[in-house]
From TrEMBL:
Organism: Oikopleura dioica
Domain Vps16 N-terminal: 5-408
First-listed, main subcellular location of the protein, grouped into a coarse class: membrane
Domain Vps16 C-terminal: 517-832
Organism lineage string: Eukaryota, Metazoa, Chordata, Tunicata, Appendicularia
PANTHER family associated with the record: VACUOLAR PROTEIN SORTING VPS16, VACUOLAR PROTEIN SORTING-ASSOCIATED PROTEIN 16 HOMOLOG
Name of the protein this chain belongs to: Vacuolar protein sorting-associated protein 16 homolog
Length: 839
């Protein structure tokens, strides 16, 4: 066929566009087929012979829209009767002769199965309600049953037989917002409501030419129209509401065979009525309500499926879409249409043809309302959305963009949004994406598109859709959800030797995208997939301690890893949770070993026992251990006391007593004594300086606050608590230099003991950082060798530093000076160093 095949049909024009050409042939003959709505994914399975053997069991195959194989599985259950896809998800459902329904994902992984009939099934069909997909079943004995929602077999309605014999053909129609089973037996229709609330009604089939029975009947997607074929070769279109024949066409003279399938095109049916698409082996016949007909030749055996906006044709080597030509597309092809004039005008101006300006002038003429520029922009923009060829899209969008420059009466945001949508559509239509139209895109919506792509593992394409359509503005969690689902898929599919690689890949991707995800959910997915080690690796990436501990207790019931995590968190509740779990799950001897292995946990356990169950202290059998654990408990209590000084001091004294009883080394006692002394000093300081808070602060912070207030008191406190002398000297120097007290600084440094003195390069840095470079330079004569290099670096004099380094013959130090100059953004000094010492 031509890539774009137009045919007139009465008052409308029909267009067949190529969605996909298959690289390999897909044999559809003798197969059950199912096509997914708003997707293009399709499934096949060979029809089994009457006698089933292991040698002739069929394969169920799922294909991408481009014909590439998505998945396949040898069928091992009952004989397949019917296949169909879910309404809003890419889930394949298979109904078998033995009354079962099996549901699979696109990888043919079984999701669920349940019984839909207690009898053997002969045929089944689906029908649409407002929000769900129903299923009607015809059994071998001629009984009908209905599942209003095919996924809920508990609400099955048994209608029973409509006629004495199995019907010749049947379908499901809609009339007055209710669904009915329409059954044909010989020359009569029989109808009954799918909810079983009406009696069986009989309607004669009024056809101009005598016939014996109806060979097939197909309902439209909306259920309002039907297409049928009689044994005498008459093709019918009828109204489902009245069951009256709208039109009929006798094809017996030219076509001896019966159509393989039929579908209805209901676009514009309100005004023009439906179009019946009748499929034969090598061609497709279109018939409208006025008996106008058209024929499309098919290159191979095919099947057809009705969508809301057209008919999808899947052949052995192609997938096409048949639709009525939109009004906007007509206007960009008719010579007198505003869209066509805008396209011609733009192309002529681009080719320096003066005629183009005349055409644009007509469009801009306010006295010519029938062909306005705004109409032309709207028509070109809309026509582009119905094109599948990117070249045609660009042609119309360029013309619309040109027109947009010439007027302020058209919202540019509408054009920008259309451009984004077209970019997304073109990405989706690329293999192996979604072969969908603009109307199907709108029906699914952005999140429906993302959901379908995720089900096939096309996360890169999901990300593209999210970026192009700015979905993060409307759905703030979409990035997090996509990343989490991608990671869960990666975890499910990885092999054992890839655990470290997968963990690293997930961690790097999260860091790269700067997105917070729940590693707990990902780790849980690994655990459920039987990949315990991978789950443990992923738990370590989670920053929140409580979820980590809870999942570690679930993955590793012994509790050691969870306890280590709880100890890292320093959360007593989490530590108690782990200890109680271990106490319940493991023998007493093992529990005692755990307490010995983790003394910090034992300390928390001692506190717990002291407060809740003193008899349990007996598990701490060693008196020394008992004393140490109690001491650690006292220290924890002191930490929790925060601003309560009396409680802190009392807890420290309790810890001191416990440690003396345990006869531990003096270092712990000295540290506790120093902490107690600091608290008492801070308490006294708060009495003097009531507007300041000292209690609970480290010694360093306390001294920093006290030095500006009372240097003598700060000196005394530092001396009594044996604070590092050199560090204290530096703190005082920073204060004096920061307050420009350089004479006091010189006196202090002169009196400083040798072991507490500061090297001159550090003094230069302190003074220079205070903002007085000349004062800092006074200390340069006291610097020698490498110290002088450091001093110049501290002064940001990188050239002088490099000069001294050159005198020392240290070329690595010269390179360091050059690098520091670059890092400081001082290109002049960096270039000077290069000029002097590059050779």
């Amino acid at each position: 066929m031509n890539e774009d095949d137009w045919k007139p049909l009465g008052q409308r024009e029909i267009r067949r566009q190529r969605l996909k050409s298959f690289a390999r042939k897909t044999d559809l003959r003798g197969c059950h087929t199912a096509i997914c709505s708003c997707s293009g994914v399709f499934a096949t399975s060979e029809i089994e012979p009457d006698t089933i053997t292991l040698a002739n069991r069929p394969k169920v195959r799922l294909f991408n829209p481009d014909g590439s194989l998505l998945s396949e599985e040898l069928w091992k259950s009952g004989r397949i009767v019917f296949m169909f896809f879910a309404l809003d998800l890419e889930l394949l459902n298979i109904v078998t002769e033995d009354g079962k329904l099996y549901q699979y994902d696109l990888l043919l992984k079984l999701l669920t199965s349940f019984s839909v009939s207690s009898e053997e099934i002969l045929e089944a069909q689906t029908f649409r309600t407002d929000s769900t997909l129903g299923l009607v079943i015809l059994t071998m004995s001629g009984n009908f049953s209905v599942l209003p929602n095919y996924e809920n077999s508990l609400k099955r309605l048994d209608i029973g037989p409509i006629t004495q014999n199995v019907p010749d053909c049947w379908t499901v129609i809609t009339s007055k917002k209710r669904s009915y089973i329409l059954s044909a037996v010989k020359t009569n229709f029989y109808t009954v409501a799918t909810d079983g609330s009406s009696r069986i009604e009989v309607h004669p089939i009024s056809v101009s030419k005598p016939f014996n029975n109806l060979l097939q009947i197909t309902s439209s997607l909306c259920g309002s129209f039907c297409a049928g074929t009689t044994d005498s070769g008459i093709q019918l279109i009828l109204n489902s509401k009245t069951l009256e024949i709208i039109t009929e066409l006798n094809t017996a003279a030219k076509i001896k065979s019966v159509p393989l399938a039929a579908a209805l095109l209901t676009q514009g049916s309100e005004n023009l009525g439906p179009v019946a698409a009748l499929l034969w082996t090598e061609f497709l016949v279109l018939l409208d309500c006025d008996k106008n007909w058209a024929i499309y030749d098919l290159e191979s055996f095919a099947t057809i499926f009705e969508e809301k906006d057209g008919i999808r044709i899947v052949g052995s080597r192609f997938q096409d879409f048949l639709t009525a030509v939109s009004e906007s597309t007509k206007q960009v092809t008719l010579p007198t249409g505003a869209g066509a004039m805008l396209v011609d005008g733009y192309e002529m101006i681009a080719a320096n043809n003066e005629r183009g300006e005349e055409i644009i002038a007509v469009l801009r003429d306010e006295n010519s309302p029938e062909c306005s520029l705004v109409d032309g922009i709207e028509q070109c923009m809309t026509a582009a959305t119905y094109e599948y060829d990117p070249a045609m899209q660009k042609k119309y969008l360029k013309a619309a963009s040109f027109g947009l420059v010439l007027t302020e009466d058209f919202d540019p945001n509408v054009f920008a949004n259309t451009n984004r949508i077209m970019r997304v559509l073109n990405q989706l239509r690329a293999a192996p994406g979604l072969a969908i139209s603009i109307d199907q895109f709108r029906e699914l919506g952005p999140m429906g598109i993302v959901g379908r792509l995720q089900s096939r593992g096309l996360y890169q394409l999901c990300w593209t859709v999210m970026d192009y359509l700015h979905l993060e503005r409307k759905f703030p969690n979409i990035k997090k959800d996509l990343l989490t689902n991608w990671a869960r898929t990666l975890v499910r599919d990885c092999a054992e030797h890839e655990y470290e690689k997968v963990t690293r890949k997930i961690s790097m991707k999260v860091d790269q995208l700067k997105c917070s995800v729940s590693f707990i959910d990902i780790a849980r997915e690994a655990s459920r997939s039987g990949k315990k080690e991978l789950g443990l690796n992923l738990v370590e990436l989670e920053p929140r301690f409580r979820p980590r501990v809870e999942l570690l207790l679930e993955i590793s019931p012994k509790g050691d890893r969870a306890l280590e995590c709880a100890l890292e968190s320093r959360d007593p509740d989490l530590i108690y949770l782990c200890l109680l779990h271990i106490h319940a799950k493991r023998p007493k001897e093992e529990y005692s070993q755990v307490l010995k292995k983790y003394p910090a946990a034992a300390a928390q356990y001692a506190i717990y026992c002291k407060e809740h169950n003193k008899r349990m202290l007996g598990e701490l059998q060693d008196p020394t251990e008992h004393s140490v654990y109690l001491a650690m408990g006292h220290l924890s209590s002191a930490k929790e006391a925060k601003a309560d000084v009396e409680r802190k001091i009392a807890s420290l004294e309790g810890a001191e007593r416990s440690l003396r009883m345990a006869a531990v080394d003096d270092n712990a006692l000295v540290n506790i004594s120093s902490q107690k002394q600091l608290l008492m000093a801070q308490k006294e300081l708060e009495k003097v300086y009531q507007h300041l808070n000292f209690i609970g602060k480290p010694l360093k912070t306390t001294l920093e606050i006290l030095i500006p207030l009372d240097q003598a008191a700060a000196d005394k406190l530092a001396r009594e608590l044996k604070f590092n002398e050199k560090f204290y000297t530096r703190m005082k120097a920073v204060f004096l230099a920061g307050n420009a007290k350089y004479e006091e600084l010189d006196k202090m440094l002169a009196k400083t003991k040798r072991n507490a003195s500061l090297p001159p390069d550090q003094i230069i840095k302190i003074i220079n950082d205070s903002g007085n470079k000349p004062e800092a330079e006074k200390w340069l004569p006291k610097c020698q060798g490498r110290t002088k290099v450091k001093a110049h670096i501290n002064l940001k004099s990188f050239v002088q530093a490099a000069t001294v380094a050159h005198q020392l013959g240290d070329f690595d130090l010269i390179a360091k000076c050059h690098k520091l100059a670059q890092q400081a953004g001082d290109a002049a000094q960096a270039n000077e160093i290069t000029a002097r010492y590059a050779s």
